[in-house]
Amino acid sequence: MDANLRVRRSGRLRFQAMLVLLLACSAASPPSRADGIEQGVLLLRWGDAPPAAPGQAARVPRFTAWLETAPGVRRPLDVEQAKRTAGDLYALANRRVAVSHAPRAARGAGRAIDAIVPVDRVMSRTIAVGEDGRPRMAAPVSGSTRWITLMCRFADVAEEQKPRAFFQSQYGDAPGQLGHYWSQVSRHAIDLAGSSAHGWYTLPGPRSRYVGTQPDLSLLFADCTAAADAEVDFSGVIGINLMFNGELDGRAWGGGACAVLDGLYGCLRATWNPPWAFDNLAVMAHEMGHGYGLPHSDNSDGDADTYDNPWDLMSDSWRRASSDPVYGLLPKHINAYQRERLGWVPAANRRTLQADDIGTHEFLLDTVDAPGTTGVQLLVLALPAQPDPFATVIYTVEARRRTAPYESNLPGDAVIIHALTHYGTTQSLDSDVPPATYSSNEGSMLKPGERFRLPQGQHWVEVVAATDTGFRVRVGPVARVMSSPLPALVRTAGVQASARRSSARPIDRASRLETWPGAAGWACISTPALPRPVLPCIGHTR
User: How far apart are CA 301 and CA 282, in angstroms?
Assistant: First the structure.
């Protein structure tokens, strides 16, 4: 690890402890930048465009970070600084934080933020380190999470694409509706009880007032909620889905926003949806995921496209999705670590193997939608702990099967492995060399009769057999060899075919050197290093 980065991270942890003492010894006061510390609500916002039409360039995703220090007073934070200094910035979304600013004389290379830490809960909990060696900072989400849909039309756009009844039905508890979806992926940890839709309301200004080069999301939120305030009860609401009858900036947005609601200032989860977004439940669920504080995930091909992982709604909400004649594309499940972030993986369904575990273990790995499951839903394989706990890498292992209504169009039934790296984002692993640009390939799926040796890892993972609810998997230690790393995938078409016929002798995707064209010589290709990602609760206050 870079020495300067280690110093910065250790400084951030020291700052957390000092901050507790500072806040305990100071009287409550409005947020300020006195003594280099500023307090406020951290608002993270993700902008997501639909797939580009043939022959057109795709719009890039956008990500912004804001600190709301008082009603109507907010300022942008440098995203790269915020990610480096917070460790896991996404765990702090929609929460009250303290930002430490470097003294002006000490600011170098444009860097002005020393640390970002939560101040809304007991500090010992926020810096707790999990059994996998990574800090646990995210706030769990549970119980009834009531959302409200507000339909708002621009003053110069008359069309109302959908009636109120359509938006109300999106919150239903039947399969293929948002209430059912979020209950299933959370294993009934949350529901959308009491969620409702209201509108249409007319905004006080034309579209040009809100949408220029970039949309003014805060103004859209403030004006739309103000238009509905007289007839909508916002008490107990944790999020607002805003529907607009015109295009924004070519993107749908999700994250958080603050405004005066029912006469009181409050900060909520929020989404901003143009017509093409609310026509597809998958897009709405993706933006609601951002509202819950979930970042994008990715695959491991190293390019700038974050929408190339079909195994997580928070990467690709468009491809490999099932569809419904009323609600359009339906959301796939979020990956297992995204669920872990929000406290949706019970301890009884989670297992962790440490890097120095040299035993061979067998697990029943179940899918999240398997009825009455008692098996493991999240298997964590840890790498050695780093001096900076935020730099500790872990691998997550989960089962996925093509099941209705949400997962029926997945690329296959398989065990999927993700790597959790710096800044708290996950990347699906691909044993193909080079990795596929879109991870629907066989190299991204581990199936019965196959064994995968983790790159940069201490373990191999073998799928022994399929079960009615997932897979039986075996995990063991990688033999220590004084040589160059072996390739993560070594297989041929004949090997693939034999694997499908029998699982008695698993294929080791790293050790079958005789199937690798370069095996006759001494040299081995090195497994490509996983690229570092370029990275991602609030209730109505009374």
Answer: 24
